[in-house]
Amino acid sequence: MNDSLNGREPGPGVATRSRLTVVSGPSGVGKSSVVGELRRLHPDLYFSVSVTTRAPRPGEIDGAHYHFVTRAEFDRMVEAGELLEHAEFAGNHYGTPRAPVEAALASGKPAVLEIELQGARQVRAAMPLAQLVMLVPPSWDTLVSRLTGRGTEEETVVARRLAIAQEELAASTEFDAVVVNADVRQAATELLTLVLTPSSD
Ligand SMILES: Nc1ncnc2c1ncn2[C@@H]1O[C@H](COP(=O)(O)OP(=O)(O)OP(=O)(O)O)[C@@H](O)[C@H]1O
Ligand SMILES: Nc1nc2c(ncn2[C@@H]2O[C@H](COP(=O)(O)O)[C@@H](O)[C@H]2O)c(=O)[nH]1
């Protein structure tokens, strides 16, 4: 099967081996850190910028870290079918703009999404040839100290995210690959190999 559009038929002249990789994993495991390193290792990949209703953290830039949108705008995008997947996570809404991902894959560029579990499941259902990678911490205590040490969320939000983290880690068997984030550079190198490996179909 041709995998350029991850399960859908390509148009004429479309490159054939680009692939969508979903990077998921519990809050605080280091997804942004590892994907940031992946971008430094291979700037030519396509990295999706999500929309979110969450307020920006200090230092986050609209259009770079996220597209920060109102709930009304988020709902409009959902209604218009502009999101490839979307989910509510710990009180905020997040989604992947569809058009840029499809354009990247159609042009032959591997694309990388950094999203939570519900979204990963939606991508798997819509694009069966997408590759799902879960990033896991070396230990539960490490995850707790990374999330609390980041200092970006209040205690109640940290507790909420850790409760969800237990469910996310339990779903690791649904994923095609599991990468342990003990060292950011090492994890990004492993991820790069996965991202550049074509699907076997
Ligand atoms: N391998 C690592 N060793 C030590 N610290 C790390 C490592 N990876 C990430 N961190 C630190 O852990 C914290 C959480 O990392 P990061 O924000 O990348 O996680 P995340 O999975 O993207 O979180 P969220 O899903 O909540 O956005 C940050 O302070 C980051 O610097
Ligand atoms: N389903 C989606 N999840 C997303 C998307 N963009 C980010 N995320 C995930 O949300 C949580 C919380 O993120 P934070 O920036 O508030 O810490 C985390 O797991 C992200 O990976 C998306 O477009 N869809």
TrEMBL record:
HAMAP family: Guanylate_kinase
Keywords: ATP-binding, Cytoplasm, Kinase, Nucleotide-binding, Transferase
Location(s) in or outside the cell: Cytoplasm
Reactions the enzyme catalyzes: GMP + ATP = GDP + ADP
UniProt gene name: gmk
Location (main, coarse): cytoplasm
CDD domains per record: GMPK
GO cellular component labels: cytosol
Record keyword Hydrolase present: no
Domain of life: Bacteria
Limits of the Guanylate kinase-like domain: 18-196
PROSITE patterns: GUANYLATE_KINASE_1, GUANYLATE_KINASE_2
Molecular-function GO terms, alphabetical: ATP binding; GMP kinase activity
Described function: Essential for recycling GMP and indirectly, cGMP.
Name of this protein: Guanylate kinase
Keyword Protein transport: no
